[in-house]
């Protein structure tokens, strides 16, 4: 170890990486070919899970769909066939149940083969202030939004490591980067998902498994029904995203091996500011952006169906 040489190397590499990032701002990155890859998507029975399945299908992949909603999955399966999926398989799987995740994962390995692109997308939201949220729903939120990621990685990562090939996609949330009033359990679960995905990505690099790529997705509200009723204060800066747009951006991020995807673009700036501003200014900014009131008119999916 030589302090002078190492520091010089880091400085030169930093300049190189900055220039590289600058160039790629103007020149589109090359997209990889995912035809024939086995893509497993949790929570594929509706929302962006379904739309991502359609996007992956149009690249000639084999789709494995997981959800607790059988009818939703059947509909997704029909749609992905129309979009050009090489094959589609769907399984009822409650991702909040570790044993069920392991059992269905074994079934997938037997019936389909090794999964090479894993998309952890299934998620729920309680939508209540912390003290009003039932313990059972808080636990369920953590089990689906965070713990399920642990169990699916445990099940499918070994084959990716053996082949030094694969892609781990985590659908987290901007609520996994910034705390939000009325979303304490959801934010905690998404912060957990972010920390987990980021750490595994680094672990793959540190152990020389650089053929396993990771994409961590942190969107603001998407108009799928999950956050029905929620509002944005400044739609120009922080628009509620269209599901089709979000799904296309996620696919593009996977095809170009993009590690972080924040949507809309203003989120990069907001997260950066949060980390450098004095606390009182950060809170003022949060108030200005409407973060204290995002959840005031929350209806959500379940309440609407009742
Ligand atoms: N909609 C948004 O505003 C928004 C914003 C940021 C992040 N996200 C995240 O995106 C992901 C997809 O959300 P969406 O908007 O498409 O919502 P959605 O409700 O349309 O889809 C979620 C899917 O997960 C399934 N699911 C729920 N519990 C499950 C379980 N125990 N096991 C297996 N599947 C289960 C549901 O049946 C549903 O099909 C979620 O992780 C969500 O937290 C959504």
Concise summary:
InterPro entries: NAD(P)-bd_dom_sf, Sc_DH/Rdtase_CS, SDR_fam. The protein is α/β, with parallel strands linked by helices and 306 residues long. The protein is built from 10 helices and 7 strands.
Overview of this protein structure:
By secondary structure, the protein is α/β, with parallel strands linked by helices. It has ten helices and seven strands. A seven-stranded parallel β-sheet has the order 3-2-1-4-5-6-7, with helices on both faces. Strand 6, helix 7 and strand 7 form a beta-alpha-beta unit. Helix 2 runs parallel beside helix 3 (70-82) and helix 5 (135-163) packs parallel to helix 6. The termini are far apart. The mean pLDDT is 95.
Q: How do the helices and strands follow one another from N- to C-terminus?
A: HEHEHEHEHEHEHEHHH
Query: Which fold does the CATH topology refer to?
Result: Rossmann fold
Number of helices: 10
Say which molecules are bound, naming each kind only once. nicotinamide-adenine-dinucleotide
Strand % is: 5-15%
Terminal CA distance reads: 64 Å
Instruction: Give the overall pLDDT as a whole number.
Output: 95
The percentage helix is: 40-55%
Instruction: Note poorly predicted spans.
Output: none
Query: What is the count of distinct domains?
Result: 1
Task: Tell me the CATH superfamily.
Answer: NAD(P)-binding Rossmann-like Domain
At the first level of CATH, the class is: Alpha Beta
Shape: globular
The beta-strand count equals 7
Strand order of the largest sheet: 3-2-1-4-5-6-7
| Main sheet attributes: strand count, strand direction, barrel closure | 7 strands, parallel
Protein name: Short chain dehydrogenase/reductase family 16C, member 5a
InterPro entries: NAD(P)-bd_dom_sf, Sc_DH/Rdtase_CS, SDR_fam
GO molecular function, one term: oxidoreductase activity, acting on the CH-OH group of donors, NAD or NADP as acceptor
Keywords: Membrane, NAD, Oxidoreductase, Transmembrane, Transmembrane helix
């Amino acid at each position: 170890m030589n302090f002078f040489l190492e520091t010089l190397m880091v400085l030169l590499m930093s300049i190189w990486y900055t220039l590289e990032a600058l160039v790629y701002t103007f020149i589109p990155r090359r997209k990889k070919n995912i035809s024939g890859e086995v893509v497993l998507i949790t929570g594929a029975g509706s929302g962006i899970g379904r739309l991502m399945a359609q996007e992956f299908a149009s690249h000639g992949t084999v789709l494995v769909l997981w959800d607790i909603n059988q009818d939703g999955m059947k509909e997704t399966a029909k749609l992905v066939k129309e979009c050009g999926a090489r094959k589609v398989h769907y399984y009822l799987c409650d991702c909040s149940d570790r044993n069920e995740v392991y059992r269905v994962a074994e079934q997938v390995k037997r019936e389909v083969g090794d999964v090479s692109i894993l998309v952890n997308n299934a998620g729920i939201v309680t939508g209540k202030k912390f003290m009003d949220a039932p313990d059972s729903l808080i636990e369920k939120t953590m089990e689906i939004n965070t713990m399920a990621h642990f169990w699916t990685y445990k099940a499918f990562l070994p084959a990716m490591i053996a082949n030094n090939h694969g892609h781990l996609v985590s659908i987290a949330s901007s609520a996994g980067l910034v705390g939000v009033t009325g979303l304490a359990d959801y934010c905690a679960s998404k912060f957990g998902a972010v920390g987990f995905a980021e750490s595994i990505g680094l672990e793959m690099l540190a152990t020389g498994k650089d053929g396993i790529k990771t994409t961590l997705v942190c969107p603001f509200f998407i108009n799928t029904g999950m956050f029905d009723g929620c509002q944005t204060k400044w739609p120009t800066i922080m628009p509620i995203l269209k599901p089709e747009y979000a799904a296309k951006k996620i696919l593009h991020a996977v095809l170009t091996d993009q590690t972080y995807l924040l949507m809309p673009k203003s989120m990069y700036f907001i997260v950066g500011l949060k980390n450098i501003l004095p606390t009182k200014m950060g809170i003022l900014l949060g108030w200005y952006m409407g973060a204290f009131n995002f959840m005031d008119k929350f209806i959500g999916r379940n309440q609407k169906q009742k």
